[in-house]
């Protein structure tokens, strides 16, 4: 349900023309009575095709890493990373960097290249629907990435009462 609450918050701000650009575990607050709340709107923009390199590094979509114009779907990429982290307890980048020897000697540009090529690793305890929604959100081609209108219909969220959340 936490994932659906965050997704609902993203839909809410997107419907108002806002791109958050910094969705991650540090910017989701869990409230006992209200559930998951999206916080820290300091990097938000109303600009529809920004080019600024901003956000929390491990959650950045390929478009931002490549310094290309991006849109609100950068938030859905970050949401995919967040879902992965909720299940695995680490981001895909954290998992990958644990295996890199002498990481302290790697330049920022090299880390960006590593981030662009990180492969998502799954574990047996994840359901097919969980892996599928993460794969759909972490599609590197933004045109093929899970569309906002399809998120509520994805099998991963099949039992979520969306009208009550949004």
Describe this structure in words.
With 166 residues, the chain is mainly alpha-helical. It is 41% helix and 5% strand. The protein has eight helices and two strands. The chain has helices at 2-15, 62-65, 73-88, 92-97, 108-117, 128-137, 148-151, 162-165, and strands at 28-31, 35-38. It has a two-stranded antiparallel sheet. Helix 1 packs antiparallel against helix 3 (73-88). The longest helix is centred in the middle third of the chain and has 16 residues, at 73-88. The radius of gyration is 16 Å and the shape is globular.
Strand order of the largest sheet: 1-2
Helix content: 40-55%
**Count of DSSP-assigned helices:** 8
Averaged pLDDT, please? Answer: 87
